[in-house]
């Protein structure tokens, strides 16, 4: 799934293509959206628009992609707890059996961190993360 904000930014570029009757060169485009956001810019979108092709997901930076739980919720509601447990066990067994001893030790350690969170070396940060692109840091 792609975030709503990314889709809005892409739609703005599509509208820009329409305003220029589909004639946007690389020089005219300047590729600002691609350089700053990792999203397809106007000159890249031209071919997909005019040829009525879908925009390849590879043109969208991973930052804008998210896991969607909504689609899996329906399936989870239909599956019984026993079916889910059996599927998890089968997946883990398959991965575990295909691994060497070192990787098996790591698998056990990481799984323990999932179901016993106090065993993880990760800790909660004390304060919110401040990013270089935040409005606060731009004012400094």
Characterise this structure.
The chain is elongated and about 60 Å long. With 140 residues, it is mainly α. The longest helix is centred in the middle third of the chain and has 17 residues, at 81-97. The protein has eight helices and no strands. Residues 131-140 have low confidence and may be disordered. Helices cover 58% and strands 0% of the residues.
What is the CA–CA distance across the termini? 35 Å
The Rg value, from CA coordinates, equals 23 Å
Low-confidence stretches: 131-140
Order of helices and strands: HHHHHHHH
Fraction of residues in helices? 55-70%
**How confident overall, as mean pLDDT?**
78
Shape: elongated
Helix count, per DSSP?
Answer: 8
Strand content: under 5%
Strand runs, count = 0
Structural class: mainly alpha
- Main sheet? none
A few lines on this structure:
The chain has 140 residues and is mostly helical. The chain has helices spanning 4-19, 26-29, 32-37, 42-50, 70-78, 81-97, 101-115, 135-139.
List keywords for this structure.
about 140 residues, mainly alpha, single chain, 8 helices
Which secondary structure elements does this structure contain, and how are they paired or packed?
Layout: H1 4-19, H2 26-29, H3 32-37, H4 42-50, H5 70-78, H6 81-97, H7 101-115, H8 135-139
């Amino acid at each position: 799934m792609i975030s709503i904000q990314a889709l809005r930014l892409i739609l703005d570029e599509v509208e820009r293509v329409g305003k220029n009757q589909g004639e946007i060169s690389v020089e005219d485009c300047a590729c600002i959206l691609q350089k700053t956001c990792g999203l397809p810019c106007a000159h890249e979108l031209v071919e997909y628009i005019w040829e009525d092709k879908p925009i390849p997901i590879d043109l969208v930076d991973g930052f804008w992609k998210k896991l969607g739980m909504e689609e899996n919720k329906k399936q989870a509601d239909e599956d019984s707890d026993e079916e889910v447990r059996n599927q998890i066990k089968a997946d883990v067994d398959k991965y575990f059996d295909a691994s060497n001893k070192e990787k098996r030790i790591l698998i056990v350690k990481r799984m323990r961190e999932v179901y016993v969170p106090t065993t993880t070396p990760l800790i909660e940060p004390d304060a919110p993360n401040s990013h270089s692109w935040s409005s606060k840091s731009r004012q400094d």
